[in-house]
Amino acid sequence: MMSGRFKVAIRSLTVFVLSFGFLTALTPAQFVVRIGVIDQADGPSARGAILAAKHINERGGLLGANRTAFELKIVVTPPSNPDIAVANMRQADVIAVLGPGNASQMHALMQPLSSLDIPALTSAPSDSLLLQNAGQNIFRSAAADDVRARALARYLVSNLDLRTVTTIQLDAASTASLIGFATALAELGVGASNLFHGDTQTDFAPIVGQILAEQPDAVSIYGPPLLAAQVYGELRASGYAGLVTYDQATDPGFVSFVSSDLLPGIVSATNWSFSSADELSRQFVLDYVAAFGAVPDGESAASYDAVGLLAAAFQRPGSLADNLRLIDEFAGVQGLLTPASLATGETSSNTAITRLNAFGVANVVARAHGGESVSTAPRAPIFGTPTPAPTATPAGYNLTILSTVQNVRSGPGLSYDVIGQLTSGAQARVRGATTDYAWYVIDFQGQLGWLAAYLVDTFGDRSLVPLIEPPPSSTPPVSPTAASQSEPDIVIVNAFPNRIILDQLALVNVIVENRGLSPAGPFTVATSFQPGSLFAGFNLPGLSAGRRATVQLQQNLTGPTGPQSAIIVADLNQQVYEGPAGEANNQIFVFSYIVDRPIFSSGVRTVTEGTIDLDGAGNHDLTWTGNELVAVNGGGLYHMTEFRALGDVHHDAISPELAAADALNVNSLRNAIVGVITSSGRRGALQVTDISSEGLLAFSYRVYR
Question: Considering the domain 145-270, what is its CATH architecture?
Answer without folding.
Answer: 3-Layer(aba) Sandwich (3.40)
